[in-house]
Amino acid sequence: MANVEEKSLRLSFDDNDILLLVCGQHNVNLAKIEKTLNVSIDSFGNELRIKGVSEQTKLAGDVVQRFFKQLSSDPDPKSAAGGPLIDDILRLVEYGHDLSKPVTSAQIFASTWRKKIFARTQGQSEYFNLMRESEVVFGLGPAGTGKTYMAVAMAVDYLKSKKVEKLILSRPAVEAGERLGFLPGDMKEKVDPYLRPLYDALYDMMPADKVERMLGNGEIEIAPLAFMRGRTLSNAFVIIDEAQNTTSVQMKMVLTRLGQDSRMVITGDLSQVDLPSNQLSGLADATARLRDIEGVGIYRLTGQDVVRHPVVARILKAYDTEQS
Question: In terms of pTM, does the model score above 0.85?
Fold first, then answer.
């Protein structure tokens, strides 16, 4: 059996406060790096010493330095260190991402009433930029990439800064073969379960009483896609979620609702279409037709942008490998 070359790496840091955040309480962050990359890490004063197989040791050093650099540039490093940032960096390693590339700018964010929403991956940063630059944006990608959450964050930012007068959030009421007629209750009770993810995002970014007040006075409207027919949506930020379940006719209808001083973001995952197998997704049709249209931006988030539990990224990677 061939000998495996081991390597020892010593890293020194000039800010002990940031280094403590890198290590985490009871060295929890170092433990994550050790487990993921199969190395050992010891701390001595302002130094970390990493031991392991040569390639893994280098990767662990790159992770630590990337983590230190991002915390150093963050306006609130303590909160960032206590969040999922180390998981995000380790996920990039799993996908073979070059950690020497520039750190995602901490200035790319949406400002909501409850908090500021920062891009956590390079893809999310580019998606945020595209939403600021284009009147109509298609955000595509698998579950967990934040495509809908970030769109709502941008919409709330626009409403808070008075760039628009209202938010309109909509999605088609077609899910995994179910039909509204078979659900109990009145129309609101039938459609609310389909719109719940949009409500959840709003309540995460705004005080509950403000959400309820704006829903009551029409500044925020959440409705099934069918309710958009025949309207002109002016001075509004419009989000169409789960758009892979629109038909081509529905997509054309909603895209042509856009009025003056409005923006629209259409999100969806083309790997989870619930339409009948013989029916073309309106999202697939639109992104093919409109890819070269001025004012229309299309961005595809990937498994590298998954910001849910780290296992979600690994699950998506397994499915992608099987289908390729």
Answer: no
